[in-house]
Amino acid sequence: MNGAWMAQRWQRNPRFGLVLIALALVALPFVVGAGLGNTWLRVLDFALLYAMLALGLNIVVGFAGLLDLGYIAFYAVGAYIYALLASPHFGLHWPVWAILPLGALVACGFGVVLGAPTLRLRGDYLAIVTLGFGEIVRIFMNNLNAPVNITNGPKGIAGIDPIQIGGHALTQPLEFFGVTVPGLALTYYLFLGLTLLVMLAGLRLQDSRIGRAWVAIREDEVAAKACGINTRNVKLLAFAMGASFGGVAGGLFASFQEFVSPESFSLMESVMVLCMVVLGGMGHIPGVILGALTLTVLPEAFRHGAGPVQQALFGQVLVDPENLRMLLFGLALVAVMLYRPSGLWPEPRHRLELGAK
Amino acid sequence: MVCLIGANGAGKTSTLKALARMIPAAGEIRYAGRRIDGLPCHALIGQGLALAPEGRGVFARLSVAENLAMGAYHRAGHDERAAVAEDEARIYGLFPRLAERRRQLAGTLSGGEQQMLAIGRALMGRPRLLLLDEPSMGLAPLMVQAVFDVIRRVAQSGVTILLVEQNARLALAVCNRGYVMESGTITLAGSAADLLADPRVRAAYLGE
CATH number for the domain including B166? Predict the structure, then answer.
């Protein structure tokens, strides 16, 4: 099987390509698990969580053009809903299929709460208000342990139930036709499935009436109104949709970590997700996924690679890998923005701007 | 076809924006016998009012065809699809320049072409009243001629036009009736021919 033959097959039948990609995605956790170990399998699971988050934020920032710096608040809301309803903290152990939709719904409500007062704001002003909103949510989580202990404050909530599907907890390996699938790989499949769902939802939205209304608002709000678009409702819808995707991802995060604390939802996380959207290619779904995967995997690669590389080059570790990691990460961001200002994988239509017919 | 002329800062654009429900206004606004001052801006197009905003305001990163399609946004439903396609063809007939560039992004068009696109997009809503805000602004003289030729043709096709313009000579030449605005109040009104002959208008706005 050589490359030319595969390329030929691909052109003749795009389905063949899809099948190849699907097979690769199914095999990926086994390859990674066997070759790089469980740490990297966890990284892979996190990469998918971030892909979901980035796809959610892409609706707000990429489609509707509303700069949101507090997106992680919705992730936090989803995570805390899961933590409160499925942990020994309140002694509640709701099933996952009940909590995830509830988390999405509550996050959606928070999205409207954020959206409603900010309808008239744009650009930098909106960014500052959303930034404040993100911090408010985090600080609430930090302080809601008195007078009534709801969130357990900075100590966070531990012992969260892992996701159970059909009575099988995703932390346990599963025997499947004689093949043992490790728990982390099961989580991978679940996250992969949900990421694909979020992606399909995003693609459908983009092609819908609502999607076109979002783009119109992004391009020119006055003209959008003149075209008969109810800009208020359509903007609120963008916030609500983005927030509910964030809520689902938050719930998955809580069950995956089995622990949540306010620390996980800092401003840095919001900025990170925004970076994924911008770096990947705002408004372009495959680009955004690429951005999320890159920005999750690269820092981890630096973390694990920087020490050994220095050892090999200089015979000793000169700079703490942890510090070097952020430095290299920052440089990579600067380089991408300088050389590919519309992202790693921008929407093809940007090329049209050069005047091609 | 009516025009509202006046100097910079006389309140022409504000009047139009108030009509289009983009800024709050005191008092009553009536259109075709019905009050429209309680309606939100986006509902006006359903009432037959369309606005081509000042400074053109096209969707820069959408193609010409997509811009026109957005103009028909409120006309949802499958039965409308054929009618929308027909209108699109009609607008390409009106603006052959747009037809040539239908797949090009609106942001790459020249100023005059963008103005044509803004008018075309407003027409896609099948308005009975078209509000035009300074269509000559920032255009080359030849382009202004071309744009005004089209405006005249649109008016002949039965659409009422309210034109807000600083270029008084041009506006009065195409309109039937005119109003002159100064610091937010109408100071003169009459047929375009009368206004053109009025010595006060000639002195203040026509530079004679």
Answer: 3.40.50.300
Neighboring chain A residues of B53 at a CB cutoff of 8 Å:
222-223, 226
Q: Does residue B21 fall inside a structural domain?
A: yes
Domain count across chain B: 1
Give the C-alpha separation, B95 to B114, whole Å: 11
* CB-based contact, A352 to chain B, within 8 Å: yes
What is the least distance, in Å, from the CA of A206 to any CA of chain B? 14
ipTM: 0.86
* Residue of B17, B21, B73 to mutate, testing the A interface (most A Cβ within 10 Å of its Cβ): B73
DSSP-derived 3-state class of residue A182: coil
Residues of chain B with Cβ-Cβ distance to A119 below 8 Å are: none
Phi/psi for A269 (5° steps) reads -65, -40
B30 assigned to some structural domain: yes
A131-184 residue pLDDT tens: 999 999 999 999 998 888 889 999 999 999 998 887 788 888 887 777 788 888
Any chain B CB within 8 A of the CB of A222? yes
Rounded distance, CA A126 to CA A141, Å? 23
Structural domain containing residue B176: 2-57+110-204
Rama region for B104: left / alpha / beta (φ>0; ψ in -120 to 50; rest): beta
pLDDT in tens, A176-233: 777 788 888 999 999 999 999 999 999 999 989 999 999 999 999 888 988 889 999 9
Taking CB atoms and an 8 Å limit, are A222 and B22 in contact across chains? Answer: yes
